[in-house]
Structure formats: C-alpha cells, structure tokens
# Entry
Amino acid sequence: GEHKTINFSNRSRIVMNSNTTVTYSLGLLHNQTIDVVLEGEAYFDAVSQTAQPAPVFAVRTPDGTIRDIAVINPKSGSKDNQSIPIQRGEMLEFNSSKFASKKSVNASFYTSWATGSMRFEKTTIREFAGFVEERFDVEVKVVDPELGGIKLDGGIHFMSLEELVRSVSDIAGIPVYQSENRKIVYIGDNPNNINAEL
# Structure
C-alpha cells in the first residue's frame, strides 16, 4: 500500500506504486540517459536540462523498452520489430510479441494514483465509474441509469477513494455512498442507506 519516490539531480523523478521494483543505473555525465528496469507500475516525470535529443529515461519492462516515454520497442525477436511513437494523451498497449492497441485517453485517470489529481473533460459518470472500478478494485453501481450520461468538467485533488467520491458527489450534486465494508460505491440514491456511508 505504499508509494515511493526516487528523485534525481536533474529534477526528474520516478514514483513507484505498491508491489513495484525499480533498478536503475546512471551514466557518468549529468545529461546521460537513466537506464531503468521496471517490474510493476511507476510514474515517470522526465525533466531534461539540455537541448540534446537524448532521452531522460530508458525503461525496460518484461515486454519491451520505452525510451523517453515516447517510443516503444516490443521485445519480440522478429526481424520486423519496429519502434512505435506515441504522443501526449495516448495510451499504448503491447506485450513482448506484438503491439496491441493505441488510443487517446484521459491520461489523468491513469496517473492520478501518483499525482493525486484528476481532470475531467466532458467525462461521463459512466466513464468515471469504470475508472473507479478498475483503479480501486471496488464495484460501482450507478443506481439510476439516467445519471450515467451526466458529464463532468474540471479538476479535483484527492488522497483516497473516499475523498475522490466525495469530491465528485459535490461537483455533480449527486449522492455517492460507499458500502459499510467499502467494497461497493453507489452513485445516486442508495437503496440501502442504512448500511452505507459517504
């Protein structure tokens, strides 16, 4: 349940999620690439202090290498192995043998565990519910189906699931409850008010 941060002298940093291992090596020069071996999940904040095109990080995973968080090289041993460029706001899924998909996403949903902030841009309650289920390992029930289409705009800062759902409740003007055992989040009027709380 811990997060750890590794700060580098060039102001770059790595925030490690729980159950993550990072091994890294630094070059002798201040502006050389930081080579990282990653097992788990981490957030990389790359700050380059030079105009040189060298990447700040080269991250090796079991499935491939990510250079400067913008080019992916799957680990495949095939001769047609290629680099896949990605842009800000895009998510790339791949495994060691192939590129799976590339799509535009709300990046703040995927980095919020490390940054403590989330941005909404016409995000529906249904999309928000899906994110909460995936990220916090809880079940989310949108009690009234008409609520699922409500759109959220703006940003919030939070430190826990409780703060996140409370903020969304305040922003959208919709009751949001957690079950007593914290395994279910209800969006809308909870039919079992007695056993749930915000």
Observations:
- The helical segments are 107-115, 125-136, 161-172.
- The longest strand covers residues 117-124.
